[in-house]
Amino acid sequence: MDIFGKCFEYSEADEARASGYYPYFRVITSESDSKVRVGDRDLIMLGSNNYLGLTTHPHVRARAREALDKYGTSCTGSRLLNGNLDIHEELERRLAKFVGKEAALVFSTGFGTNIGTISAIVTRHDYAVIDKDDHASIYDGCKLSWGKAVRFEHNDPESLREALGRVDWEHGGALVVVDGVFSMEGDVAPLPEMLPIIREFGARLMVDDAHASGVLGPNGEGTAAHFGLTDEVDLIMGTFSKSFASLGGFIAGDAKVIDYIKHNSRPFIFSAAMAPPSVGACLGALDVMESEPEHRERLWRIVNRMHAEYRRLGFDTGNSTTPVIPIVLGDEMLVFEFWRRLLDAGIFVNPVRPPAVPQGRALLRTSYMATHTDEQMDYVLETFERIGRELGVIGG
Questions:
Q1: Top-level class of domain 12-45+293-390
Q2: Which of 211, 295, 307, 372 is catalytic?
Q3: Cα dist. 326→12, 323, 365 in Å?
Q4: Mind listing the pLDDT tens digit for each residue in 35-70?
């Protein structure tokens, strides 16, 4: 049997392209901001994770340019051997301080941060206890580890208790891993309800703050700070491809734990170091987060308005309380039809279907950034209302 047989038989993408409802790999020919150029049209971008709008910030660009000029385009090797720069370590020190932990470790990608951390910590006889709606990188980290994975129902503390009850505590330990902000539906993990259960069993907690860094917390420190539980959360993970306007990721926690990951994580040890311009951009983004709170304040004014207006119009936005606002439609073809009409009207959103969301919860994922204008949001709401009524999603 030809191992490529499955490739030649695969037809789903071709069928979607032929139907005119293929939403993926849209070619963007402009910078990533509140408006992007696709083909010969400018579209309002509601599909980005650029929450603070820092990809175009002059200081972030300047710090990236400075790093490029001083260190070049690449480290050409791993941190372990020849790719460890002083700015990597500067970034780690500043990130640890920013999120309130002893130490941090920078990875080349956010995906690699999760698989590298989980696979290093969860070894033979250990358990990873994960939310059913956790990000794919958390699932893959469990696969790469030598331990066992146990899932619990989404944001359900009692289901978490039942899952922890299935751990073989005599021969191993457990790492509970949750998204701080869940990337598709924008809801927040109930850490205050989960932590007493986790501590009761003697487990440890890791929070993936990919969509919370720069957004939640008094100064954008993330989900743990949002709840005032920084000291109680054992590991805080974040990515740089969202609010940090760059590429890469980090894990932060006790110094001894971070040092263990540093010397035992295969995805860290055997990956090339984070590129200097990306490190420079992250340092610039941190500078802005710490000195210009108006970006986060502007973001939340937009987010609070859009939540209120979508609810007023009658759209189902689930349990979101964050800049990720889902428009839950349920039916997959309805999602793609709504997406197509929004695209024709000049609005870029992400249609999401199973397995990225549970069956029956297909949705339009919208997300917001500090650089969106009031005029853009006026147009977005007018267009959603018009198409929602045309398709019978909201009342006439």
A1: alpha beta
A2: 211
A3: 25, 10, 5
A4: 999 999 999 999 999 999 999 999 999 999 999 999
* Beta-carbon contacts of residue 223 (< 8 Å; ≥ 6 apart): 180, 181, 188, 189, 191, 207, 209, 212, 216, 217, 233
C-alpha 141/C-alpha 330 separation (Å) is: 29
Q: Give the strand order in the sheet containing 35-38.
A: 35-38, 41-45, 347-348
Give the Cβ contact number of residue 48 at 10 Å: 20
DSSP classification of residue 330: E
Residues in contact with 180: Cβ distance below 8 Å, sequence separation at least 6, in sequence order: 188, 189, 191, 207, 208, 209, 210, 211, 212, 216, 222, 223, 224, 226
Paired tokens of 184: 């598709």
Token readout for 41 is 């049209």
The one-letter amino acid code at 166 reads R
Sheet harboring 235-239: ordered strands across? 103-107, 249-253, 235-239, 204-208, 174-179, 127-131, 148-152
**What does the alpha-carbon distance between residue 236 and residue 99 come to, in Å, rounded to a whole number?**
8
Q: Which two tokens stand for residue 198?
A: 């986790």
Q: Nearest 5 degrees, angle CA 199-CA 239-CA 88? A: 105
Give residue 61's pLDDT: 98
Catalytic residue flag (residue 183)? yes
Query: pLDDT tens digits, residue range 288-334?
Result: 999 999 999 999 999 999 999 999 999 999 999 999 999 999 999 99
Q: Which ranges in the chain are annotated with CATH 3.90.1150.10?
A: 12-45+293-390
In this structure, which topology does domain 58-291 adopt according to CATH? Aspartate Aminotransferase; domain 2 (3.40.640)
Assess whether 125 carries a catalytic annotation: no
> Exposure string (b/e) for 331-346, b if CB count within 10 Å is 16 or more?
ebebbbbbbbbbbebe
Catalytic residue among 135, 242, 262, 295: 242
355, with CB counted inside 10 A (0-12, 13-18, 19+), is exposed
